């Protein structure tokens, strides 16, 4: 996100034609940096012993996609409910907000882009801090803090954005995106991994990540845009949209067990419906 925002900001100096012609490719080229980091981490981190146990004991699931929904339907739906909020807030503040500030408020696109640049720098620190904090106090509390920030701040953030004041818009984007979405994003990877045993873990995580964004991911900016158009340019429906999905996440977390101290794979138990 940081590299993409830098690329778009840099390209804006050459005009919209340059962005459409070639500059949109820059973020994809910059992703080479992320590939290098991922490759470095992958070489340095060994697989958990439990995965080797699963392979040696031949207890791998034959059809993990079906087993996840048949054996772990409740926890899968609860995890997806938590994912709704993070993905919605992320897409509202990093995609929709660009359209809203430029088309509805008539501001230069640099205003929102610079706000996203600041939020990306702040989020760069908040994500690992959120993950670290979840190791100490648990996944659920940190996820709940992020959802609570997202919900409570939604109306004040859009009120600040509606002022058209550049500093207030930047503060709003930082609060909503960096402190809301990034706080939740920090513990998500560990949380989604810990709710499944090793035999279906990769598939379970993938289901939560991918299906959990269907009502709140790429469609969120389009839904928010339709809300603004339907309300005559008002932002309150979008703020309410965020509040509703934050409430869904908090409700899901209320019925989700804490996973940070749960050793699901201690004895490689047989599957049970959870």
TrEMBL record:
Annotated PROSITE patterns: MFS, SUGAR_TRANSPORT_1
InterPro entries per the UniProt record, alphabetical: MFS, MFS_dom, MFS_trans_sf, Sugar_transporter_CS
Keyword Protein biosynthesis attributed: no
Membrane-spanning parts: 23-41, 88-105, 111-130, 142-161, 167-186, 207-228, 234-255
Every Major facilitator superfamily (MFS) profile domain range: 1-261
Keywords: Cell membrane, Membrane, Transmembrane, Transmembrane helix, Transport
Protein name per UniProt: MFS transporter
